[in-house]
Amino acid sequence: MGPDGIRVNALSPGLTMTPGTAPAYERPGALEAREARIPLRRVARPEDMAAALSFLVGPDAAYVHGHELVVDGGLVHTLMPSLTEPAWRPR
Fold first, then answer.
1. Which is more confidently placed, 42 or 1?
2. Domain total in the chain
3. Which of 8, 38, 47, 58 allows an S-S link to 73, with CB 3.0 to 4.6 Å?
4. Whole-structure pTM value
5. How many CB atoms lie within 10 A of CB 25?
6. Contact 61, 3 (CB under 8 A)
7. If you compute the radius of gyration of the chain from its CA atoms, what whole number of angstroms results?
8. pLDDT digits (tens, 9 = 90+) for 43-82
9. Taking CA 38 as the corner, what is the angle to CA 59 and CA 87, rounded to the nearest 5 degrees?
């Protein structure tokens, strides 16, 4: 698709506070527990995703193609160390 001027990219959002996810944070301590796992120590706002998407579709990313932009406050980098070795070792 690149030769046709079509860029293909993906936005992979992390934990984001929205009206649809708000009930998951209503239990006392739930928000704090999730924020404690995220290196940036906060759940994303929709504006965080909008800003990343705006970059990805805008002129500043004109040479970005075939990329997955993970917008999760660093959470994905905390998941592998939390797995036990047998869970991730190739067999």
1. 42
2. 1
3. 38
4. 0.80
5. 17
6. no
7. 17
8. 999 999 999 999 999 999 999 999 999 999 999 888 766 6
9. 105
